[in-house]
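User: Teach me something about this protein's shape.
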Amino acid sequence: MAASIIGGLCKQGISPTMICASDPGAAQLQTLHSNYGVRTTSDNGLAVRDADIIVLAVKPQVMRQVCEQLAPHIHAQQLIISIAAGVTCSSLSQWLGVTSIVRCMPNTPALIQQGVSGLYATAQVSAAQRTQAEHLLSAVGLALWLDTESLLDAVTAVSGSGPAYFFLLIEAMTEAGIKLGLPADTAAQLAQYTARGASTMACQSNLDASELRKQVTSPNGTTEAAIQAFQAGGFNALVDTAVRSAATRSHELAQQLSE
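Assistant: First, the predicted structure itself:
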């Protein structure tokens, strides 16, 4: 995800010399330098010394260790942006000793600059820093602000985990097409490109998804037959249960990480 953000920033015209990436792996650093021309180091303290913005893109399980090592090198004027799921602003503030923190939850389409991220800022984050954070996350897709940190659990459930839900639907549609006699590669492409086209239409249209669905659903037609089968199987309730389960698990993981 960090590499995706770096790539997105460079595509937006940010000079690679303004970016310093730190990683314990020499191979990863070489790849980042070769691909983007950014400065690299294996010393986290050196990486953050002159930075206005510090992006913490490490696994949640090692975040505390990384933060406590960074703490002596950070000053109050720097903006901290964390993309680690489940690690609260309170925990980050305690480990780092600073309070200007933005938490965000991007999703995997950020890898192709088609992601969406939910962002939450502590009260100490200035308007200018909020703009900086939004600009940074916009490099990999859409950035949306939240007023309450706890809503990041909902963002995790809807968009963070969401790509997997669509992949599951593509899988199921592909398998159904194969059972109807389509060659496997044809069924897969039909499902994949249908998903892409429908998503693009939904993003670009002024109509909500419900209205777009109704436009495709002719009375007594093929689409209506399929929609009725979905509804008879409790489709909406199943999606609601699944998303709520993801949100609950996100909250549980956050509690575990803060202990």
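Now, about its shape. Strands lie at 20-22, 39-41, 53-56, 79-82, 101-105, 115-121, 141-145. The first strand starts at residue 20 and ends at 22. If you'd like, I can walk through any region in more detail.
User: That's plenty for now, thanks!
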